[in-house]
Write a structure and sequence with these properties.
single chain; alpha/beta; Beta Polymerase, domain 2; 7-stranded mixed beta sheet
């Protein structure tokens, strides 16, 4: 795993942020061989968890990619408005000094931590215990992307192959 991704995960865990790894990083952690730079996470949207996340992004020098204050995510009505009126699926934070360091957090309630936690597996990376989306749920989420992107179609194919291999080894 890239050092900057490990650093992000270590700091999220250190700040006791409740999160689930989704997207390309989850696919890679399940065994898909592909390049990914950003990290997609589902956060527990409870106020105290979001405050811990905001402390984390400040500590890590992340800022919103758009000209909206970071504390915007604390307000459920503003999050809902972004989804409904702006069709925003994620809110992106970047490190302005190292723009390849990027975190996307899901804004939609159906992709929140509480909705997804039962579809996760816990893994250990360098003594860091994290939740990642299960292969099955990751496939479902990637199938829901409209229009489908080439990388997601490839991920689906690879993840389905991983599932078949796991079932044949049982």
């Amino acid at each position: 795993m890239n050092n900057y991704l490990r650093e992000i995960l270590e700091n999220l865990v250190e700040q006791d942020v409740k999160f689930i790894i989704c997207g390309g990083v989850a696919a890679v952690l399940h065994g898909v061989e592909r390049m990914t730079i950003d990290i997609d996470i589902s956060l527990d949207l409870e106020h105290t968890n979001l405050e811990r996340f905001l402390f984390f992004i400040k500590k890590m020098n992340f800022v919103p990619r758009v000209a909206i204050p970071a504390n915007f995510i604390l307000d459920p009505l503003k999050r809902k408005m972004m989804v409904e009126e702006k069709n925003a699926l994620v809110f992106t934070f970047i490190d302005p000094d190292k723009p390849y360091r990027q975190i996307d957090i899901f804004l939609e309630e159906n992709k929140s931590y509480k909705k997804l936690i039962n579809d996760t597996v816990k893994i250990n990376i360098d003594n860091i215990k994290i939740n990642i989306l299960s292969v099955e749920k990751l496939i479902d989420m990637k199938k829901d992307i409209v229009p489908p992107r080439d990388k997601d179609l490839l991920d689906i194919k690879e993840l389905q192959a991983i599932l078949r291999e796991r079932k044949s080894n049982e």
